[in-house]
Amino acid sequence: MKVSCEIIKDLLPLYHDGVCSNDSKTMVEEHLAYCDSCKAALLEMDDTLCINKAEQNLQEAEVVKKLSKRWKKGMLKSLLEGMLFTILAIALIALVLYFFIGFRIIPKPY
Ligand SMILES: [Zn+2]
User: Which residue range forms the structural domain that includes residue 85?
Assistant: First the structure.
């Protein structure tokens, strides 16, 4: 069966992603066997999609890496700050309580 290049080019994206039916797949493969221009179109699709995806993934990975690095840094910093603040607060409360109770413990003069 001879199919026009237009039909094949419509099907190529589906064929490329492997989501077309077996019949379409066979039809595309039969056409690609003798049609160089559609083969070239498929190869081009392969290239651009792969490169785009790879580049996008790389960029995304880089952004995620940066973000998680920044997040970790910020997290560690705020954790340390929080711990320091907590320790200071506890120390202050303990100190206040100590003085408060200490003054109270001193026998009242009567
Ligand atoms: Zn063709």
Answer: 54-110
Cα of 64 from ligand 1 centre, angstroms: 41
For 58-94, letters b (16+ CB in 10 Å) and e give eeeeeeeeeeeeeeeeeeeeeeeeeeeeeeeeeeeee
Give 4 Cα–ligand 1 centroid separation in angstroms.
Answer: 6
* Whether residue 74 is found in the same domain as residue 103: yes
Task: Give tens-digit pLDDT for 88-97.
Answer: 999 999 998 8
Global pTM reads 0.45
Same structural domain, 30 and 59? no
- pLDDT at residue 85 in the model: 94
* Domain count across the chain: 2
